[in-house]
Records
---
Amino acid sequence: MAKNKWRAREFKPTSNMQGRTHSFYAEAVIDNEIENRDLGAKIAARTGFKPYEVQAVVAAIADIVLEEVMESNRVTLSNEQGTKMVTIYPKVSGSVNDEQILQETTAAHAQDPSVDIRNVAQESDLTPDRLTWTLGATIGIKFSKEFAMHKQAQKVKFVATDTAIPSDDEGGTTPTPTSDPGTTPTNPTNPDTPSDPGTGGGGSTGDGWEEG
């Protein structure tokens, strides 16, 4: 059975990083990116479908997911047992506060004295141009636990060094790799604090967990 690879990264705080200590932390090593063609071949080997037929279905799923989230829906992909694998949903972030409104109305008043200066934000001030739309995704907790239960891990004897500041919630870092740029460092969301994809709340990374 293939093994999941991981390696150690070394964190060396610089002299201006008060309260940070030298440490090592684990990081998953990603070998390849599996695309539609690869999925098509693997699925075809387990079913009676031809690889090109499966590729067409996988491509259609991606298009349909995009259509659904643009209709304010969230899409959940599950396995045959009904275990949620991933949920994709629209997210929006944006805000306006009293200080912004004071600055904006003051500047507008300077150009046009008929504009009133206000120091209190109103709901109508949260206009579409202040919003940022993205897509978020959550991984089913049960699906992830099944992966953790059945995976076989192999340590890669390679240590990369970072000078990034470790994140407080994970004990890891958001690294700036100094070597081996072929892999992308990860910083998983804490599964004990699941996100709520139904809210589409702003401010999060979009990578989270949900019950499933």
---
Amino acid sequence: MGETDSNRIDPVRDQNLIDEYFNLLIKKEFHMDINFSNEYIATQNIVSKKGILVKTFSDDILTRPALRLFIQALIHKINSGALNKDQLVKGIESLRAVSSSNTGT
């Protein structure tokens, strides 16, 4: 996609950022707190050798079709490079601001 490798999200190295981004988005869109540590794994694509996220959804996610599709779309955006690291960090900052204004902190 023309992104430099330094701006590409590395699923292993950036896992904490990814988890926080997913958590904040899910909280905003679905009003839920979810621990993402068991919902996906970071691994390497055997052909391209690039890091990717692979879904390992729990029953909690699988029984909620809208949530499952939402998370699948997020994973696809990261795997395809449609979301880069700068966008991820800016998204987290924006979601933190929205979250703190909603809680009054």
---
Amino acid sequence: MSKKNEGKIFEDNWKASYKKLPFYFLRLADAAKWGRGSDSRFMTTNPFDLLHFKPPYLWLLELKSTSDNRISFYPETPWIKPENVKSQPMIKHSQVKSLMESTQKDNTIPGFIINFREKEKKTKTFEHETYFVHINDFVQFAIESKKSSINREECKKIGVSIDSKKKKVNYTYDIEKFCEDSVKILFREKENTYGN
């Protein structure tokens, strides 16, 4: 029996954190794929991983988890896939584009849940940290920095820290506090739009 992917464990932990909450949660099914030979495959692309609804707001979220200290994406215009590039960054252009499009609707809060897993090095231990980065802040960061990745410190600077508690093995995330903190971003975006 193969060991479960760490990213899937994070997704399962995140999903389990909704169990006792009174609002709607939906995890979209993973994309289906098939192939014949090395060059032939079919794949449907999900716009994002999940949504949850806590009236009157709808969250559209893409979950990412890494043991590295950074998450990769296409530089400067992460919603466009460069021509003749075969490698795939962790954040796909289609995910960025879908989340960007959802900002056009009222009371939507789209973005990335970025999980940096605990990691030990010879001289330093990196803690388990999770952040919400609103899609508008992510895009602004990508354009202005011209970088092809975002690290822990940058997520901390432009994102919202999400509290978590570790049980024996798994983590539980404070979804309700995350909702309260991320709604503040929505009000900030409205103020920027209307110039209040």
---
Amino acid sequence: MIILNADDFGHSKKVNEGVVGAFAQNLIQRTSLMMNMPKTEEAVNLAVENLFFDRVGLHLNLTEGAPLTFQMRQLRSMCTDGYFNRENDIYVHENKLTEEERSAVYGEIKMQIERFQSYGFLLTNIDSHHQIHAERQIFDMLKDLAKGFEFMRTAKANAYSGVISLFTRGHKSAIDKEIQKSFKTLPFFDSYDSYVNAVKPPKDAEIRVRAEWHNRIVYDRTNDYDYIPLAEYDITKL
């Protein structure tokens, strides 16, 4: 089973249009929705109108945009002027969170889950912006909060490309094992190029894309410098 999942639904108008176009052309199997972005409400309405409401998961976000909770917005170590710091995934990886930080992050995750449920979405799938759920401290919070989730994306250690340190790979591998023990998941997660260039890619995999609409074409913008037509990703040949 190969699943193409379009991240960042709700991020912007172009992303929302890309997700709708990708579903209309049967280019993706599901998407994951950000709760705190300017076009979140638009994305929810589009999912209803275009009949893919049941294929929307939660895209937990602690690295971009304005937090939903006041406590998180006031946390200077992870927010600036009321907006998440982009480097929060690195900060969490390198620092033990204080009680104040843990309380704020826990509350923000809880609020994003509750906001997701308030729209009527079933709590069955979770991934995250910049893979922050694969950091130990965040994952431990999710394990406590996300008991209703069935599927969770694996950590980046299962990617078949990219250079990461042995320590980081070991850390991610440990999280992978816990995710696989506690939730349904797939043995591979990464970009389309990483999958097709893998030495022995597994038959079951999740391929991440960032669908955007430009000039009536749906492109994968997983890398900001690339414009790859999503229609070129023929998963029937994988």
